[in-house]
Amino acid sequence: MALSYKARRRWSLVILLIGLPVYVVVAVTLTDWLRASFEKLPFLVELLVFVGLGVLWVLPFKFVFKGVGQADPEATDQD
Q1: Other C-beta atoms within 10 Å of 27: how many?
Q2: Does pTM surpass 0.85?
Q3: Sorted alphabetically, which keywords does the UniProt record give (predicted)?
Q4: What does the pLDDT look like over 5-17, one tens digit per residue?
Q5: Residue 44 domain-assigned?
Q6: Half-sphere exposure of 24 (CA within 13 A, CB side)
Q7: Residue 72 lies in a domain
Q8: Could you list the residue range(s) of the whole structural domain that residue 35 is in?
Q9: CA-to-CA distance for 74 and 72, rounded, in angstroms?
Q10: Would 66 be classed as within a structural domain?
Q11: Domain count of the fold of the chain
């Protein structure tokens, strides 16, 4: 079932305002656990973890964010 433009806008707002902060807390907790588990992580490994986690959150929600910044395609032009 495809989401309407309005539903995608609402869900994108919920994801950005609620889901993303929760994900940031989980990501920071994970990286802190990695730092505590290993004495010293190499810089490139740490960088890869941060970049990977930074990109990973958006992949499941790609369909929600696609086209949200555009004008509503279902709206009638009333100029």
Answers
A1: 17
A2: no
A3: Membrane, Transmembrane, Transmembrane helix
A4: 888 899 999 999 9
A5: yes
A6: 7
A7: no
A8: 5-55
A9: 5
A10: no
A11: 1
